[in-house]
Amino acid sequence: MKARIQWAGDALFIGESGSGHAVVMDGPPEAGGRNLGIRPMEMVLIGLGGCSSFDVMSILKKARQPVESCEAFLEAERADSEPKVFTRVHLRFVVKGRGLKESQVKRAVELSAEKYCSASIMLGRGGVDISHSYEIVELDAPAFPA
Question: SS3 helix, strand, coil % of the chain, rounded to 5?
Answer without folding.
Answer: 35, 35, 35
